[in-house]
Each structure stands twice: as structure tokens, then as C-alpha cells.
Amino acid sequence: MSHNTYVKTILILAANPTNTSRLRLDEEVREITAALKRAKNRYEYQIVTRWATRVEDLHRALLEYQPTIVHFCGHGDGSNGLALENNFGQVQLLSTQALARLFGLFQDTTECVLLNTCYSKDQAEAIHQHIDYVVGMNRAIGDVAAIKFATGFYDALGAGRLIEECFAIGCTFLDLQEIPEDLTPVLKARRRRNQTEITTNSENVIPGKSFKDDSRSDDNKVTQNRSVSIGGNVTGSAVQTGDRNVANIQFQPVSLPAPESVDIRAELKALQEAIALLESPDRRKIENAFADAEDEVNKPNPDKNEVGKALDRAFDYAKRAEGFASVVEKLKPHLTKTTAWLGENWHKLLSIVGLGI
């Protein structure tokens, strides 16, 4: 691309730490790119993507590219901040205060920040002290909803619409797709600095998209909250849902029974029955993984590592399902016994349900 003075940069910062549930961030970036490529104003924008974003990568990217729009995609942890990565690929939270302070240094170049992560309203409010347009989420947002909202937003941007209109079209796109999360995104907005605010209400958000409450009646509100907090004080971090919320959990110590006391066939059956309660697009893959585990167990001399690998694969798919947190308590006793039978190499499976040795 030629260095056109009028080309605006969209900086996409993606992070999916290894100890969080897998998100379809590559699909989100692909849909954003496709939306702008097919737009009539496609030559007005260039997209720069940074994957596996670490805290130290953030200010460097802002300095290098001076983006007009900054788009975060990944996990959020509410008031604790955004989930970026450390040098080992695991979660490192970027605090709300630090994030706001950073964007205060780029308010002359950045016009809009889109936080496509769960519970990012606190960050949106803080960043809005310095940036005119900030989109956040007032609750957990599912992976599909996050992708569809971004698609609608950038379709409108490429068509030359204002940020307020892009936001409204993104929300409407969710409604058209019959995804009941159109009130999850919220926009903090004002005209360019030194001009009047777009809204005059105390919340300073687009009407009907208030951070404190939404405009739907109680009968129509989305009541499903797919975040989860297990235990009290946080001593570890894991994700147990199929949405974009980082669930802080306490790893509870557990004692394992003697391996010879475990009826492994019964435990595998119980695990599969609990997971079968979930609505997962990967149901067939989960069933195949359990079938592989059962086939190995039925051999005269089963290879426990092969059983462990099959279960690891099954839970990798199951964790992505919405509502996974609702079956955690059912899984705990059976996964504890199964892990005891598998041996020390597979104690890591306990962390899936917030347990540890």
C-alpha cells in the first residue's frame, strides 16, 4: 500500500492466552478485513494486526502506527482489566488505570477504541476521559456475538458512516441475526474535542445503551450471565466458559483416591453424561474423543496416556461451550477419580474444574 497521508490505520490487538478458553479471533480479524475490502471507501483504511499481544507491545504499536481506531479482541476480567499475555503466553492483566493513562498520551491521534471483550465498560469509561469514542461491553459477550458486532460495525465504517452509526448498525446486525446480545455493546461518545457532547444524559452514552441499565423490559432482558467466579480469593486464573470473560477461580486442593479403587469405565460414562448437557457445536468431536478414551480403556492393557490425551481433547472442546460453568460441580468428583486412575502426568486435568493437588 502506498503511504497516502489520508489513509487511516486500524490497529487490531488480539490476545488469547494459553490458560484461557480458545476464541475465534482469527475469524474476527478475517471478517473485519473482509468488511473493509468490500467497502466503497476501502482505500481510506489500512489494517495492522498484532497477535499474542503483551503489555509491552501495546505502547510500541501505538507509537509506531499512530492508529485512528484501536480494536481489542480477546478476554476481559471486568474491573481487573484486559487479559493480555506475558512472555510465557499466559494471562497478564492490564489494569484499567494504566490503560486509561496510556490512551491519554495518544488522544491527538486516536479517535475510537473498541473493546470487544467481556465486561469492558469500566475500561471504556476510563478511556473516554481522553478518547472521544469508546465501545465497551456491559456484560459477558459470546464469541459469535462479538464477531457479528464487529462485522456490522466495520461494514458501516467502510461505507463512510459516523462512529455513532457504525455502533448502531453493529447492534442492529446482532438483532437481525437473532443473537440476543444487542444491548451488550455500549458507546461512550462525544464530538471531537472542544465541541459539545452527543448526549446530554448523565451517563453520556447512546440512549438505550446505558452502562447502568438497559431499555428492555424485564421480560425481554438477556438474563444469562456466562461469567463464573468459583471459590473466594483468587489464587489462579482459568476460563470455564465459552464466552469472552476471564473467570477467576480458586484452585481448591483435593485428595486423590487410590488408583485401584477407581471404576474408570463408570467415571468416563459419568463425565460424558455431564458434558452431554451442554449445547456445543463441537458435540460430535467431544463424542469421538470419549469414544477413543473408552476404546483404549477396554483394551487388555490400556495406555493411560492415550486415555488422558483423548480426555484432554474432549475437554478442550467442551470448555468452549456456553454454560460450561454450570456442569463444573457435576464434573468435579468424576474428574478427580479419573485423574487418580490416569496418574501424575494427568493431574493437570484437575485445573479444568478449579481443583489442584
TrEMBL record:
Region (Disordered): 194-235
Polar residues biased stretches: 222-235
Domain CHAT: 12-164
Pfam families according to UniProt: CHAT
Superkingdom classification of source: Bacteria
Feature: compositional bias, Basic and acidic residues: 210-221
Designated name of the protein: CHAT domain-containing protein
Protein source organism: Brasilonema sennae CENA114
